[in-house]
Write a structure and sequence with these properties.
Blueprint: H1 4-65, H2 72-92, H3 95-103, H4 109-127, H5 133-138, H6 148-171, H7 178-194, H8 201-234, H9 239-265, H10 275-300, H11 308-351, H12 363-391, H13 397-417, H14 423-448, H15 452-456, H16 460-465, H17 471-503
Keywords: Membrane, Phosphate transport, Transmembrane, Transmembrane helix, Transport
GO cellular component, one term: membrane
Subcellular location: Membrane
Length: about 500
């Protein structure tokens, strides 16, 4: 009896200590959650820190490399503005190319960022030497700004204002046109420097028209391609047999369109082709791609079930390739938005003349744009990629392929018609076009199947919830598009007044 008590006491003590261990585990679990939350909160600060370091390194290197040139301080400051602009382009604009592929689960976020960074850099360095003509000569009337100092200050103001506006739009989760932001910046600085008469208003009217033309064309073409895929591939008795016939055709159209697109927009530094010559190149590349893809698609589709899931697998690789090509073309074309004004400033300070005739950006300037776009994409791009890829409407590989093909087809059609368009507006318009077409198609099928009565009995809130396109994003994006040019112009005018006050 005397030994049983200590045993009972020991057993009670062990029982009590066993109850304490779960409490300790819970506390440790809470501590690990706090640590994870702290890391998640600090992650954006890492991107900010690396971005500031990138801008500082660019400024220092440019100041040292141009130490013997006149206006070294102005070139170094302009390089800092250009680096900041490139970071924001990578954070905002690149999402239009990779967002659909990520939203369709054809690429992981890490894979999309890696491919986009590589292709954007390659496009910028290999074929990005031509400055968009509107940056230094199209927006401002010739001969209105004859003072070299005022021209340099105007270009610096345009870069800084455009970068600030794109940064603001990225925070607000609105994909905007970087070209329009730069155009608005140049316009605002020109007005502040020489009055309203310095602006080429016909060019500005054409750019304003592109606000409507670009997204509508992109949306209509994307919806048309999706309608064709549904008609010829998805809703037929034998989907795999239909895919073997029509998927190579679509791949040929994609390859030919991108060949023509790259010839017109990205490869002018290598070889200059007009629209008809580029179309012939595109036709040849498309025909060859169709012929090569026929056995590849047949081999890939062997043993696949007659399901839409199999079609998603077949469309995945063409979608990834098209996204990579779009990124290459974007890097070649839109790098000028980041560093075009910097190239104009360098030429103006070197020659002591307004750089209206400058057509080729110095290679070190291109490096700033290429590296800045890649850094901005890596640290700030995922948020916008998710928005474009999955938060506007649900995408699968077929729908995302329609968006990518629409972007290239719309640019080619607009070039043929002589219409100014924005690649950002086209891509986002394509996403909305696919979503609205699906809404229309589902409503049409419901009416055909006699399900309209039950749909009408649903509350308004439930009907809105079942919409396939999120209207809140539509409103935000359209508002940002409309405000981009005037907001950039106003910011640029204020920056010009500040810079002229500081530097005289």
């Amino acid at each position: 009896m005397t030994e049983s008590k200590p045993r009972a006491a020991r057993s009670a003590s062990q029982h009590d200590s066993g109850q304490d261990w779960p409490t300790l585990d819970k506390d440790l679990g809470r501590m690990s959650l706090i640590e994870s939350a702290a890391l998640h909160t600090a992650r954006p600060l890492i991107g900010v820190g690396v971005s500031l370091l990138f801008v500082a390194i660019v400024t220092a290197i440019v100041a040292l490399a141009t130490g013997e040139l006149q206006g070294t301080l102005m070139i170094a400051i302009a390089a800092a503005f250009a680096a900041y602009m490139a970071l924001n382009i990578g954070a905002n604009d690149v999402a239009n190319n990779m967002g659909p592929a990520v939203g369709a689960n054809a690429l992981s976020m890490a894979g999309a960022i890696a491919i986009a960074a590589l292709c954007e850099t390659a496009g910028a360095l290999l074929a990005g030497g031509e400055v968009v003509s509107t940056i230094s000569s199209g927006i401002l009337a010739q001969g209105e700004i004859t003072d070299g100092a005022h021209f340099v200050q105007a270009m610096m103001s345009a870069m800084l204002a455009a970068a600030v506006w794109i940064n603001t739009a990225t925070v607000l989760r609105a994909p905007v046109s970087t070209t329009h932001a730069v155009v608005g910046g140049v316009m605002g600085a020109g007005i502040a420097a020489a009055g309203f008469g310095t602006v080429n208003w016909p060019t500005m009217s054409a750019i304003a028209a592109s606000w409507v033309i670009s997204p509508i064309m992109g949306g209509v073409i994307a919806a048309g391609v999706l309608a064709f895929i549904k008609w010829k591939i998805m809703y037929v008795p034998d989907r795999i047999a239909a895919a073997r016939i029509w998927l190579p055709v679509l791949i040929g159209v994609m390859a030919g369109t991108f060949a023509c697109y790259l010839a017109l927009k990205a490869l002018r530094q290598v070889v200059h082709l007009d629209l008809h010559e580029a179309a012939l190149v595109g036709f040849g590349v498309g025909l060859l791609s169709w012929r090569v893809s026929v056995p590849l698609v047949r081999r890939r589709s062997e043993g696949m079930e007659n399901r839409n899931a199999s079609l998603k697998v077949l469309f995945r690789m063409p979608l990834v390739i098209s996204a990579a090509l779009l990124s290459f073309a974007h890097g070649a074309n839109d790098v000028a938005n980041a560093v075009g004004p910097l190239g104009a400033i360098v030429r103006a300070l070197q020659s002591r003349e307004v750089a209206a005739e400058m057509t080729v950006i110095p290679y070190w300037v291109l490096m700033i744009g290429a590296l800045g776009i890649s850094c901005g994409l890596i640290f700030f791009g995922p948020r916008m990629i998710r928005l474009v890829g999955s938060q506007i409407t649900k995408l699968n590989p077929m729908r995302a392929y329609c968006v990518a093909l629409s972007a290239a087809l719309t640019v080619i059609l607009a070039s043929w018609l002589g219409l100014p368009v924005s690649s950002t507006h086209i891509a986002v318009g394509g996403v909305f076009g696919v979503g609205f077409y699906r809404e229309w198609y589902m409503a049409r099928r419901a009416r055909t199947e006699g399900a309209t009565r039950s749909t009408k009995l649903l509350p308004i809130e439930e009907r809105q919830r079942r919409k396939l396109v999120r209207r809140s994003h539509l409103t935000t994006i359209i508002a940002a598009w409309l405000v981009t040019v005037p907001a950039s112009a106003l910011l640029s005018a204020l920056c010009f007044l500040l810079i002229t006050t500081l530097f005289g």
